[in-house]
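Ligand: adenosine-5'-diphosphate. Inputs:
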Amino acid sequence: MSVETQKETLGFQTEVKQLLHLMIHSLYSNKEIFLRELISNASDAVDKLRFEALAKPELLEGGSELKIRVSFDKDAKTVTLEDNGIGMSREETIAHLGTIAKSGTADFLKNLSGDQKKDSSLIGQFGVGFYSAFIVADKVEVFTRRAGLSAGEGVHWASKGEGDFEIATVEKAERGTRIVLHLKSGEEEFADGWRLRNVIKKYSDHIGLPIELPKEFHGEEKDKPAEPEWEVVNRASALWTRPRTEVTDEQYQEFYKHVSHDYDNPLSWSHNKVEGKLEYTSLLYVPGRAPFDLYQREAPRGLKLYVQRVFIMDQADEFLPLYLRFIKGVVDSNDLSLNVSREILQKDPVIDSMKSALTKRVLDMLEKLAKNEPEQYKAFWKNFGQVLKEGPAEDFANKEKIAGLLRFASTAEGEGEQVVSLGDYVSRLKEGQDKIYFLTGESYAQVKNSPHLEVFRKKGIEVLLLTDRIDEWLMSYLTEFDGKSFIDVARGDLDLGSLDSEEDKKAQEEVAKSKEGLVERLKTALGEQVAEVRVSHRLTDSPAILAIGEQDLGLQMRQILEASGQKVPDSKPIFEFNPNHPLIEKLDAEPDEDRFGDLSHILFDQAALAAGDSLKDPAAYVQRLNKLLVELSA
Ligand code: ADP
Ligand code: MG
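Predicted complex:
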C-alpha cells in the first residue's frame, strides 16, 4: 500500500446523496446492471483517451492496447474493474464522483413520484451511472490517474455511499482507473468468474474494446501462477461495424441500452452502411417510451458521433431535425475530419446531406413500423406523436411523408383514440368528396358532440377530430395530403362541393332568400358581437352555430397566444342559424323586439358554449335564460 498524502473527507452534493439513497433502495431487482454501468464508463474513458491522443499521441505512452479487466477475490469478497483509459485528476475525481451531479439530476429528482416501481424505471431512463456500484457494494474504492500526469499524481477515492467520501493523493504506476467493490454481505455471488462472464456477455458484448477475465485455473493450488492468464470474454468489435446478418436482435437491444441509458427495449432500429460519395454507418433506434425531459429545451439529444471508429462526441444534434429528437443511436463517418468540432459540424455541407439522408431513414423506419407492427406504432404514437407533429412546420421537404405518419381521432373511430392515418381517411372518401375535413377543439368529449359535425353525420362523411394543443398550429402548415386539401369544418362558409347535389344547392338558395328578413333582424339584435349572420346548411339538430372567419385565429391558437401574454386581434364569429329548427321558427314568428333580442342572445351564447368558448358576460346569459323560464312557467 502506497503512502497517502493530502487526505481529506468531503461531503457528497445534496442531489448526489438523494440519488444514492434512491438507487440503493429501488434497484434491488436488477442488481447486476452495476457491471454494465462501470464497464460503460470504462469504455467511455477509453474513447476519450483515443480522442485526446489524436492531438497528443504521448498520452498513449505506457500501453496503447486499450482494454478493460474485471477480476474478483472470493475470500476478500471483492470485484475489481480496471481500465487504461483517460483516468481522472484529483479535481476531476472530486467533481465527477461527488460534487457535480450529472446534468439533469435536479430535473430528474423533481420528476419522481414516490411510487417505487415507477421511480425505479425513471432511474433507468436517467442512467444510473457510477453510483450503481453501491447497489452491491458497501464500500467502493477508486484508484485513478489522469493520462499525461505523473505516477505520483494518482488519486485514491473511497466511500461507503453514505454522506461523504475520502480522497487522497497516491502513487499509481499506470494511467487509467481501477475500481474495487467491497461486496455487501448477500452479494457474494458476484465474486465469481462464471457469474461475471455471464453478466458481461449479456450487457457488454457490444463494447468495442476487449473485456478480459482471469482464465479459470484447473491445476493444483501450488502450481497456480501469481499473475493470472487473461481471456477476452466479449466480442470486442464495435457493434455497428459488424454486418447486419451477424448481429442478433438481443445484441441490438443491449447496444441500444448502452447508448440510450434506457432500461427497456427499443421499438425498432435501422442499421445502415452508406458507401459512395459519402461514407458512413448509422444505427438509429426508436425508443419504447418518452424520456421525462422530452419537452425540455435543454434536454440532451442527438446521436453519438464517431469518425473512423474513434469516438468524437455525445449528443451530436446536427444530424437529425428537432422533431426527431427522440431518436437514439450512433453515426460513424469516414468523411469528417478527426478533429471535427461542434462549430465545424454546424457549417459543414457534408452534415447537411447526412442529415437529410438520416431523416429519410428514420421516416422510412417509422413507415415500416406503422405498416408491419401497428400495435408497436400505437405505442410510438402515444409517446412521440406530439413531437412528430412539429415536423410539417420544421421540415418542408418531408411534409407529405410526415403527414402520412400522423394519427388522428375521427368520427369513424370510437373513444377518441388517435389511430386514423390520412391514408386511411383518403381510402374512405365518399363519392364526390375531394377534401379532408377536420375539427379542432379542447377535448375529444367537446368536439365529438359539436354541432359542426351534424351535416357530416347526416351525410356519413368522416371528420378528423383534433384535440392536441398544437393541432391548430399543425393544420396551418398542412394544406394538402395526396392532392386533397384540408377543410376546417368550423371555419368560413362550409362548401361541401359536389357532396351537395344541384337540387340541394337550389333548395339552400331558396331558403336563404326566404330568410333574408330574419337575417336582418338578427344582425340588428346581435349587433357588434357578430361579423355576419347567415342561414346554415351544416345543422340538423342544433338551432345555431358560430363559425370562424376564413382568416381568423381559431380558439386554440388564440388561447395559446393569450397564455403566452401576446395581444390577440379580436375577431368576431359568424352566426349561422338552422332555418328548420323549431326555436328558429319561433324566433322568426316573434313580434316583440325585446323578446326577440333576448332569444337571439341566448342562442348566440349557447352556440359559443357548444364551441367550447367561454361567455363574455355569463351573468347576462343566465338572467335572460331565467327570464324566459319564468315566462314559460307563468
Ligand atoms: P456518465 O457516465 O453518464 O457521465 P457516471 O455516473 O457513470 O455518469 O459517471 C460520472 C463521471 O465520472 C463520468 O462522466 C466520468 O467523467 C467519470 N468517470 C466514471 N468512471 C470513469 C472511469 N472509469 N474513467 C474515467 N472517468 C470516469
Ligand atoms: Mg456512465
